Amino acid sequence: MPTVLILGASRGIGHEMVRQYREDGWRVIATARKQEDCDELTRMGATAHQLDVTSADSIAALGWRLDDEQVDVAWLVAGVYGPSGSGFPTGPEFDTVMHTNVLAAMRLLPIIGPLVATRGGKLAVLSSKMGSIGARNSTEATLYRASKAALNSVLADAAITYGAQGATCVSFHPGWVQTDMGGAGATLTPEQSVRELRATLAQLDKSSNGAFLDRDGTPIPW
Ligand code: NDP
Question: Minimal CA–CA distance to 107: which of 78, 70, 145, 149?
Answer without folding.
Answer: 78
